[in-house]
Amino acid sequence: MTTPRMTTPRMATPRWHPDSLADRMPFLRRRAGLAIAIRAFFSGRGYTEVETPYAVATPGEEIHLLPFATARVTPEGARENLWLHTSPEFAMKRLLVAGAGPIFQLARVWRNGEAGPRHASEFTMLEWYAPGASMASLMDETEALLRAVLPPTIASGGIASDLGCFERLTMAEAFRRHAGADLLGTAGDAAALAASAAIALRDGETWEDQFFRLLLARVEPAIGRAHPTFLTHWPAAQAALARRDPADPRVAERFELFACGMELANAFVELTDAAEQRTRFTADRARRHAITGRTDWPLDEDFLAALDCGLPQSAGIALGFDRLAMLAAGADRIDQVMWL
């Protein structure tokens, strides 16, 4: 009788181990060079690099993002609840109100509950804001940035994209083409959207649930592959902080950018109406609290006061720097382009 041989599970190499760092160094050197190139690009276009606080009293009203909680303790022992920001957006818009002009930031951000080959709970966001910009001019500038800092052909996860041309596709056309659905004609009617897309409506499924199900299952897998794709003109219900399109109030002036089959950026022509922003915040807070079953942070009255003071007509974009580094270096996982 042979006694079974006991084996000890092999432990993963620690990130600090010389072998682990050596494996990542080609990607990390490319990441470092990318940051230098980005700063040169924006400096050459008259932008000012800014830094804003990471710990904030109000991280925003985004329904599906979960921030990290922290606190500030004063020398007297008083305690103030704070949150690690999920984006520097609110702070940077305050600077636009103050007259900072075109600005950009490479900011560390935190989003709890996110992990995977393309997700990390702590990562770097490139955000920039251009007073007077339109959605079209912001897409033009984004194309120019990618062509300036990336090779002509990029690859990640077995998908290659040619930066020689960029597709601009409205959300309505994307749903018609890839989901066979009439997105705007069924707005707010989940049963009608399901019938249009020839799929079964699930119990309790809302129009928004259906929208995201089709977006994730049919639209996103079909775009941003051979060439990068700007997915534009989102339904007004998904406007977030974007203004409605003056030419078609059914949609918002919002776009996302996809390359190598990966979401890379989210952008808005900014909403400047403080009253409408308050209405949206209030509705989003109610939905978030219904989902979580608890309250969390106060409404951002300071941001609303800044909007009321006068945010100039602007367009802004948040682009995942780590994902951009993946494309620059040909990495397949986000951890390959992170130092630790």
Model description:
The protein is α+β, with helices and mostly antiparallel strands and 340 residues long. The protein has a domain at 18-54 and 85-166 and 227-337: 2-Layer Sandwich (BirA Bifunctional Protein, domain 2). It has nine helices and 14 strands. It has helices at residues 18-44, 89-98, 135-149, 171-179, 190-197, 207-219, 274-292, 301-310, 321-329; strands at 48-49, 55-56, 68-73, 79-84, 103-110, 122-131, 153-156, 159-162, 167-170, 229-235, 244-245, 248-259, 262-269, 314-320. The strands form three sheets. Strands 1, 5, 6, 9, 10, 11, 12, 13 and 14 form a nine-stranded mixed sheet that branches. Strands 2-4-3 form a three-stranded antiparallel sheet, with no helix packed on it. α2 (89-98) runs parallel beside α8. The mean pLDDT is 94.
Helix content: 25-40%
The counted number of beta strands is 14
User: Please, what is the average pLDDT?
Assistant: 94
**SSE arrangement, N to C:** HEEEEHEEHEEEHHHEEEEHHEH
Q: Can you identify the CATH class of the domain at 18-54 and 85-166 and 227-337?
A: Alpha Beta
Rg from Cα:
22 Å
CATH topology-level fold name of the domain at 18-54 and 85-166 and 227-337: BirA Bifunctional Protein, domain 2
Assign the structural class, choosing from mainly alpha, mainly beta, alpha/beta, alpha+beta, or little secondary structure: alpha+beta
Largest β sheet strand count, sense and barrel closure: 9 strands, mixed
Low-pLDDT runs of 5+ residues are none
Span between N and C termini? Answer: 48 Å
What is the architecture of the domain at 18-54 and 85-166 and 227-337 at the second tier of CATH? 2-Layer Sandwich
Q: Count of DSSP helices?
A: 9
Principal-axes geometry comes out as globular
Fraction of residues in β-strands:
15-25%
CATH H-level superfamily of the domain at 18-54 and 85-166 and 227-337: Bira Bifunctional Protein, Domain 2
